[in-house]
Design brief:
CATH topology of the largest domain: FAD/NAD(P)-binding domain
Keywords: Oxidoreductase
CATH architecture of the largest domain: 3-Layer(bba) Sandwich
Number of domains: 2
CATH superfamily of the largest domain: FAD/NAD(P)-binding domain
Number of helices: 10
Largest sheet: 8 strands, mixed
GO molecular function: oxidoreductase activity
Bound molecules: flavin-adenine dinucleotide
Protein name: FAD-binding oxidoreductase
Number of strands: 20
Strand content: 25-35%
InterPro entries: FAD-dep_OxRdtase, FAD/NAD-bd_sf
Radius of gyration: 23 Å
């Protein structure tokens, strides 16, 4: 296994062993919980906040398994707001010296010829609204990407029905980050603000109660107004208003009290391919000053993410049909999946990969909102649930944390910075208003 290093164990912050009541209890120290805690303490430094995490440190869940790509160009208004505000935040803190492993390598979508005219017009529309997308014809791509085959013509390519690449769309305000460093950044900022962290502490269940308790065993009854009053753990009860940011674990724990997370887990895999023969492909100054091939999507969805440390690529493919929804605590990558689903396509478009097999692999899970693939942030029984990150939880993390914190504080319009704002109920399920995204490949 070549999985990424998860966060190191951290000690609890000030007074946590003695203080059993907080203004806010955040469940989960992945990127979502960390950003939420950081944003909440930034907006209201006077609040007492505790992050309760089952693992022995930050980023022990799916955040550390992320490809951690970010992009800013989307057609849907909500996607654009969430992604741009988060990218603005990341670029700003990086320029001030924060090390989150940010490299603006760009995103490159290689598009099948039958869809290229459509996507080019979408890109032109986005450019009229402030994007800086570059539309690249197939001939130029051949010059810019050493060894690419824009028109796979082998017998295998024909059997697989592979398309000719009609051209590419390059998004320069995009790139990659180190997901653990992103988590460490939010964690350090939350700690500096005075947030407490309680690691190795699993929330077993919620404290449920009536808002006006009568002291009758079995409360709350159906005729009472029920609320979540805190969490129960093996280390004791902690009282306070709860924000659940438990990623793929969230559906189970909120379901126990009759709350529906409205999102489902699905396994995703990444395979690491490295070798000296990849040097020409990897080192590429034709797209950005980062000097590597951008985060690149082939027609059909196989993607290549340049690794930071050496001439290696993380290769992934978010398959849907046949991939069951279901929670897995320790998902594992399956090399036969790579061999049968990814390698044949990869080596037709980029034959340099034909003789290379994975030197490492890992798997994690998305928590997918199956309606519109966007986060769901809602309040029920006084408890806020943040879920449905759907494979873009890092690139929207700042905005997600900001919205969750604003909802907690009763703020109707969350300020995402740089003049971007969004209604806090817009990502709920009652007044939800999320447009379909056209820029998906
Ligand atoms: C292979 C892969 C590739 C991805 N690529 C990208 C990408 O390119 N760009 C992007 O933006 N996103 C990507 N994502 C998605 C992104 O990584 C996730 O959306 C994000 O990390 C989710 O963060 P989280 O904090 O919600 O969940 P997690 O990081 O899983 O954190 C949840 C935490 O809750 C804790 N927890 C659970 N139950 C309890 C409990 N009962 N008590 C206490 N603690 C509990 C867990 O221990 C865990 O630490 C990818 C994900 C995968 C798997």
């Amino acid at each position: 296994m070549d999985g990424r290093e998860a966060g190191k164990p951290r000690t609890a912050g000030r007074g946590v062993k003695h203080l059993k009541k907080y203004d806010a209890i955040v469940v989960g120290a992945g990127v979502t919980g960390l950003s939420t805690a950081f944003n909440l303490i930034s907006l209201r430094p006077d609040l007492s906040i505790c992050v309760v995490e089952a693992g022995n440190g930050i980023a022990t869940g799916n955040s550390s398994k992320s490809a951690s790509g970010f992009r800013t160009s989307f057609t849907s208004d909500v996607n654009r707001k969430l992604a741009r505000s988060t990218a603005d935040y990341f670029i700003r803190v990086s320029s001030k010296g924060a090390d989150i492993g940010l490299r603006q390598v760009g995103y490159l979508y290689l598009i099948a010829d039958d869809r290229f005219a459509h996507f080019s017009s979408v890109a032109e529309r986005l450019n009229r609204n402030g994007s800086a997308l570059r539309i690249i014809d197939a001939g130029s791509l051949e010059k810019m990407i050493p060894g690419i085959v824009v028109e796979p013509a082998s017998e295998d390519a024909e059997i697989m029905g592979l398309h000719r690449i009609g051209g590419g769309i390059f998004d320069p305000v995009a790139g990659i980050m180190d997901p653990v460093k992103v988590c460490e950044h939010y964690y350090a900022a939350a700690l500096a603000g005075g947030v407490d962290f309680l690691f190795n502490t699993r929330v077993q269940e919620f404290i449920t109660e009536a808002d006006r308790p009568l002291g009758i065993p079995g409360e709350p009854f159906g005729w009472q107004k029920a609320q979540v009053g805190g969490v129960k753990t093996a280390r004791g009860d902690i009282r306070g208003r709860v924000i659940v940011a438990a990623g793929t674990w969230a559906p189970d724990i909120v379901n126990a009290i009759g709350v529906d997370a409205r999102a489902r887990p699905k396994t995703r895999q990444i395979f690491v391919l490295r070798g000296q023969q990849l040097a020409d492909l990897y080192h590429n100054g034709n797209f950005s000053t980062a000097g590597t091939l951008p985060f690149t999507f082939l027609p059909g969805g196989v993607y290549l993410r340049p690794e930071t440390s050496d001439e290696a690529f993380d290769i992934g493919f978010a398959d849907d049909f046949g991939r069951r929804f279901g929670f897995e605590e320790y998902p594992a990558a399956d090399e036969s999946f790579f061999e049968m689903n990814i390698h044949p396509v990869l080596s037709e478009y980029l034959p340099v990969f034909s003789s290379i097999r994975p030197s490492g692999s890992w798997a994690g899970q998305y928590i997918i909102n199956t309606f519109d693939s966007n986060p769901i942030i809602f309040e029920e029984y006084g408890m806020i649930t943040v879920t449905g990150m759907s494979g873009s939880g890092i690139l929207k993390s700042y905005a997600i944390g900001r919205i969750a914190a604003s909802l907690f504080l009763g703020i109707e319009e969350a300020d995402l910075g740089n003049g971007i704002s969004i209604r806090t109920d817009e990502l709920g399920y009652r007044n939800r208003h999320v447009q379909a995204e056209e820029l998906v490949f």
